Amino acid sequence: YTFGVKQTDLANNTSSSTPQTWTRDTTMIASPTITVPAAATTYSKLSSGTASLTLSGGCITGYTVKLLPEGSTTPLQSTVCSSSAYSFSINKTADGTYKFYVKQIVNPGVDERTSALIGPKTWMIDSVAPVTTITGQNPRLSSTSATLSFTTVETDSGVSVYQCKLDTGSWASC
Question: Given phi > 0 = left and psi -120 to 50 = alpha, else beta, which region is 84?
Answer without folding.
Answer: left
